[in-house]
């Protein structure tokens, strides 16, 4: 029992470092920094929208006149005290324009948040796949190291038997050293890939392994359908931002209209022992500040938002057209690369048999080993390209790799 407890205690941290399946990891990263930032922006615009509905505050003032002057106003007998209430009145649709701008800002922030969620899922999938690729590249290079070691042993056997010159053993040893150096570089790339995945997921402890491989996860059947570029999250976000910019421009134009302030007061006349009402209206003169700078800035912002919308539309159309073709091409590329790998494996097998039998030179075996390693690398690259195409299609459709829609 004590031994089992110790084993469980030692294995628990290692298991905690293994990244869960991608769908689970995506659900668990709701508090990742990128997700929190995007959601905080939505709350910020919701607060601004609530503030846009607020009306101007009234002003209450007390004014005393005809006191502490020269005779007959030396004392306070002739004092006139006025209690005044002032209320600014927004005219010209200023408040409604401000409210519309606030609501459009909230809609734009929500569209950006939805686009950010989709892009985060896409980036997280790519980081997850990059860690998977790093693992598989290590396996490939380790296989090349093992093959190079076998070639070196075979070369030394032939050298000892006097059937090969010592130079051949040195050549085989040099080839082994080269692939061993590649292995060390591949291990460093793996550490970097897992560090990026952990940082993107917002976890404190770096992952050391994966629970599944995304390179072989198929896209759900509905996700293979045509992509409507006008429904992509990036286009909808740009469209909402243009609408918000136009609403802000209207609000700034309305701000140039002067406000009217209504004034109502009660005046106490001490000398006459009487009370009187006062009323008035004040209107500012737009002589110096006509809000022209803010209007010009809003016009430029609206033009920039329209340009971004046009670019987003063009990008969405291009990506939608390319999505289906890229998936079909990637699948054909994988099939062709796997066929080439099978040929390279057979070539290496025959070259090794021939060399060990003394019927072919070492250089042919080394070339066959290099060709096999290159073929395996091409297969892995083809699978990565296929994954990239599937991930891009899922991003355009606002879905995860498994076909679930991102809310």
Describe the protein.
With 407 residues, the chain is an alpha+beta fold. It has a domain at 116-256 and 299-407: Outer membrane efflux proteins (OEP), CATH 1.20.1600.10. The protein is built from 8 helices and 6 strands, in the order αβααββααβαββαα. Helix 3 (33-52) packs antiparallel against helix 4, helix 4 packs antiparallel against helix 6 and helix 7 (292-356) runs antiparallel to helix 8 (362-396). The protein is elongated and about 135 Å long.
SSE layout and pairings?
Layout: H1 2-16, E1 18-19, H2 22-28, H3 33-52, E2 59-65, E3 80-89, H4 94-160, H5 166-201, E4 209-210, H6 233-255, E5 260-269, E6 274-282, H7 292-356, H8 362-396
Instruction: Tell me what the CATH architecture of the domain at 116-256 and 299-407 is.
Output: Up-down Bundle
Mean pLDDT metric? 86
Quaternary class = single chain
Q: Using the coordinates shown, work out and report the CATH topology of the domain at 116-256 and 299-407.
A: Outer membrane efflux proteins (OEP)
| Unreliable stretches | 1-16
Backbone shape: elongated
Task: List the helices and strands in order.
Answer: HEHHEEHHEHEEHH
Signal peptide: 1-16
Keywords: Coiled coil, Signal
Protein name: Metal transporter
InterPro entries: MdtP/NodT-like, OMP_efflux
């Amino acid at each position: 029992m004590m031994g089992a407890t110790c084993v469980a205690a030692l294995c628990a941290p290692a298991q905690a470092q293994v990244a869960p399946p991608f769908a689970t990891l995506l659900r668990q990263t709701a508090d990742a920094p990128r997700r929190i930032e995007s959601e905080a922006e939505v709350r910020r615009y919701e607060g601004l929208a609530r503030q846009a509905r607020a009306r101007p505050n009234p002003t209450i003032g007390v004014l005393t006149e005809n006191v502490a002057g020269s005779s007959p106003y030396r004392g306070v007998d002739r004092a006139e005290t006025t209690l005044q209430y002032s209320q600014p009145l927004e005219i010209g649709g200023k408040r409604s324009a401000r409210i519309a701008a606030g609501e459009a800002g909230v809609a734009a922030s929500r569209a950006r948040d939805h686009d950010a969620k989709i892009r985060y899922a896409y980036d997280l999938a790519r980081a997850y796949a990059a860690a998977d690729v790093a693992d598989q590249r290590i396996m490939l290079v380790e296989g090349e190291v093992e093959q190079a070691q076998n070639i070196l042993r075979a070369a030394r056997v032939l050298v000892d038997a006097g059937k090969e010159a010592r130079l051949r053993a040195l050549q085989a040893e040099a080839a082994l050293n080269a692939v061993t150096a590649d292995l060390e570089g591949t291990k460093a790339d793996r550490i970097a890939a897992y560090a990026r995945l952990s940082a993107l997921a917002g976890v404190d402890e770096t992952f050391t392994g994966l629970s599944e491989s995304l390179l072989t996860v198929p896209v759900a059947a509905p996700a293979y359908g045509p992509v409507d570029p006008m429904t992509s999250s990036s286009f909808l976000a740009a469209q909402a931002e243009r609408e918000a910019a136009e609403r802000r421009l209207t609000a700034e134009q309305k701000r140039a209209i002067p406000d009217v302030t209504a004034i109502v007061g009660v005046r106490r006349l001490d000398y006459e022992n009487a009370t009187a009402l006062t009323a008035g209206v004040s209107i500012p003169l737009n002589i110096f500040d006509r809000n022209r700078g803010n209007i010009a800035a809003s016009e430029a912002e609206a033009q920039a938002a329209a340009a971004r919308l046009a670019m987003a539309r063009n990008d969405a159309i291009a990506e939608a057209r390319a999505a289906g073709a890229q998936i079909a091409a990637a699948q054909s590329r994988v099939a062709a690369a796997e066929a080439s790998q099978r040929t390279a494996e057979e070539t290496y097998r025959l070259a090794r048999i021939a060399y060990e039998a003394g019927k072919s030179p070492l250089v042919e075996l080394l070339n066959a080993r290099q060709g096999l390693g290159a073929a395996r690398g091409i297969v892995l690259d083809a699978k990565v390209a296929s994954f990239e195409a599937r991930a891009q299609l899922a991003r355009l459709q606002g879905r995860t790799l498994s076909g679930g829609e991102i809310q």
